[in-house]
Amino acid sequence: MAGITALFLLVGAGYVAYLNHVIVSQFEDKRFELPARVFASPVQLYAGRRMSSADLAQALALLHYSAHSGAPRAHTYQVLGDGYLVHTRGFDSPDGNEPSRLLRVRFDGGRIASLDDATSGQPVALARLAPLLIAKIYPRSHEDRILVRMSEMPPLLPKALVAVEDRRFYEHHGVDPVAIGRALVADIRARRFVQGGSTLTQQLVKNFFLNNQRSLWRKFNEAIMAVLLETHYSKAEILETYLNEVYLGQQGSRAIHGVGLASEFYFDRQVQQLDTAQVALLVAMVRGPTYYDPRRHPQRALKRRNLVLAEMAEAGLLSPAQAQAAQASPLGVVTEPVSGITPFPAFLDLVEAQLARDYRAEDLRTEGLLIYTTLRPLVQLRAQQAVSTGLRRIEHGRDLRPDTLEAAAVITSVADGEVLALIGGRRDVAGFNRALDSRRSIGSLFKPAIYLAALERPQRDTLATLLDDSPLTVTYGNGQQWSPVNYDRRYHGKVTLMDALVHSYNVPSVRLGLSVGLGKVIDMAHRLGITQPIDAYPAALLGAAAVPPIEMAQMYQTIAAGGYRAPLRAIQTVVNPRGEKLQRYPLHIEQVADGKSDYLLIAALHEVTRRGTAASLQTLLPGLALAGKTGTTNDLRDSWFAGFGGREVTVVWVGRDDNQPTGLTGSTGALPLWAGIMGAIHASPLQMTQPTDVEWQTIDPVSGQRLAATCPGAEWMPFVKGSVPSGEAQCRAGALRQAIEWFKGLMQ
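Below the sequence we write its predicted structure tokens.
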């Protein structure tokens, strides 16, 4: 008998040692399984910024600011006659901490006229609004939480939890025999389980290591592990962990855990800002978040909350008057909680793709990383609206069935390749991302690669070089033949290289590409940013290659940046929960094309928007200097436009998912959407910085020779110094007289 007892004790001791190992080895890792949080770029405020009162209103709405007279506390604002009084919320970021302050923002003419500190009256050079949380990357369990330290909680909250759920918390050692006895008596009287005797420590153990199955074996493990937990951790650590772990609600597949997230989920405010009644409601829901859900069962929740307030008063945490005042207040729960689903799924696809190069999926789901991105929410929303409106207008104007057309768009920064917005479809919902995953023939969007490759040899090709636009048949491969034709089915004789690009003539473009060499043109396309393989067939010169919009955005960003390629990036910095920078995504710039030749190409692309295939921009965006290129594919299946101003590059594709013809060219499909986006985001005008070794000359487009600026038909063209045509053309018959008459009329 003694041997059996000894064996039993030995096995028991071994089992307890095993449970202790589980506690020690897993509790730290499991204590805070936090989803990664993804933030947009903060909205910047400064005098002179192009921003309207409506823009700021939308930014404040996105950040869930509330309107209050005088903006008495952080996260509130007041509308004034010519602007806003905004009480910003301070925040920490990798770029420096931003203090909370009361700002006076005045607007005039669509710009911020002044930005002042309303308290001191002094001007503020720059202020930032806290970055918008745009997504979370959840653990596999879809548990969501916001980690809050005890020092950041209202002092009343942990006291109320202990008073209501475990009054002897600071007296027991994980298991409370008094509570167990009281629960046992209640269960015997009711002849069923009606009351639990679990301490907060036991509940924490159950949530972390066990399941909800009611059995004596689970309760046995729970009790032992609770005692072991309290031997390793302090009461303060256990209580803090409980408050961050406790389950408090559900939104679809998203489980709401911890008081930090629950505070935002139910009250749309940080836990530090909770009042007495709100603290009591959170504590009330610990007993049963589904049963006492204040949105679905408000009367039930109100009754339970008021009972908690009474118990708080009984415990001496509140005076009777304070308890009565809190009981008289409404639940104060917001009708619509902030969604746990990202409002920008297409952009998040790009973020996750770039994160995957540096982080394991498990790290993103559990380590609580803070990911700061390049997304500009106002740019994204305005672009989405422009695409949606533009597609409806096209479908209505061409008598197409609604929702026939689809679109994709990418907006990047000229200077550094930051992706400001990304649209994967006419409705920004999770699913097929056309901006990243759709590979469609690019048509004439490819042509700048031909012309830039040619212009890099200025002693042979300039914008004034004459190209032959006459019937052409190309033999390639095993005797195969291909005869390109122009879109208008006409030939135009001799045309300058400038005019061939401006009017997007196919035949002279093919001739130019063949003279440069297919291999060199394809190499140029890859240097500019296309990573898709391009087969070395003549048809590649007219954009037969299938390329996603994101890569076309890279190509045109490189052109817009003067031949300097900055790999497109959606992430700026990754920070761990302790504020330590784990990874910066620095700006890497590489010169991949000659700057002088690129300047010549931009000048030609500017002419495309003035008098070429994109001349309608003169009406759509009057007075705004831009550069760009249309693209149309065979049978009018794909419509493209890529272009840029001084700060933003935008690429738009329009087509059908079934790849059927749309009847749209680049100028009738993608171009109106592009114009709508650029207008909505307040795009800046093109700013061309002329290299020192480039000069301008007026040219006769018929002969390709120099021509006096006073001669009608003379075209200004830039040249690399030393490559200006040596010959000089004369004003054509009657042209000089026309010039004289024009000049006389001007003088009158």
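The CA atoms of residues 172 and 199 lie 9 Å apart.
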